[in-house]
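=== How it folds ===
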Amino acid sequence: MICSLFAGMTQVAAAQESVQDSVLDLSMSYVGDLRRNTTGGLEVGNAYSNAFDLGLNWTTTAFGTRVQSSLAVMYMGGDQISSERVGDLQGINNIEAAAGWRLYESWFEIGFGDSESSVRAGILDMNAEFDTPVTQGLFTASPFGIGTELSQTGVRGPVVWPVTGLGIRAAGAIDESFRWRFGAYDGAPGSDDDDFTSLHVSGSEGALLIGEIEYSSDRIHKFSVGSWMYTAPFQRIDATLQPGAAPERGNHGFYTTVDLPLGTAGDVSFDGALRAGTAPAKFNAVDRYAGLAVTAQNLWKSRPGDSLGLGIAWAHVGDPYRDISAFEGTPATTAETVVELVYRTELTPWLVLLPNVQFIDDPGASHGIGDSWVAGLRFEMSHERTWQLSARRDAPADGSYARRQPQGF
């Protein structure tokens, strides 16, 4: 529907002035993930999970303005290594989710002239633009994609994969190095029934506001500082210990990322990233998070595209969470730590393998769960196709276009 609307707008523009080429992109991907909890955790055993994504992206320019729309759906299924085998709280498999089809994204974006400023609105994934990884994107555990102190917030989590929701964001650039972005998102996305999508918004549930400033250069992949807040009040996490306590406002936090090249040793190049963030302990289990990642590329001349990475994700749990855990008879430790060693190799342009080993210290930050070792193998298959939709100068008023020219396969 959105694509049809924009197509009609572009046809009208074509009747009045020169319209630049439009581009239509179709992408498909399938990810399969097999893991075995070899010791510790909840129980020893295997878990296979999978995710299928189908996306359509359309871009054009008319009247000197960029217009883009995107539609993406996804299916998740299989077993859940975290909840069924390990019992960790950070998520050691970033494609683990309840089985079913979901609308991932459906949005449109309008740019402003030749500047990098734009506004995007619709069904969005906040993590696609805020708190996004660079070096840490190699890893398969969830905290390397978005910090645990942020991903655990909200009624059903923030507007991030797999539970996306309504939102609007504005972005732009101060100069070639500095970029800014600001977003407002549904404060309680999704539904308790894991529906295909949810467009429900409520004043009582409020909104999640987030802003970020990013710097990048030849010497720095990314340096960013972000701040977020929920506008709605929240019940304290230890409300059981404080009868009659009313919901409070103040669920907000900060995060920062430093990601840069570390140097070379012969032909091998190294990159490193450090991310840290905070959240209020009275509303959230995790009040402090720190993640560290180091990666190496060009380990072998015959396979320059392969990468090896070591990552550590540390999530500290606050005093209110430990107090309520002790009251309920399940004493909590002070933190959970996830260590991941992963290797990425591209066998073909459409097939990637990622064998990995993970160690989880104090899974679930619980005294009752033993340390866990997990071995896994992930494979990713993807395919993209692009069509160039050429438009002629002085196009006829009926909006007819030149023949479509497929690009690539």
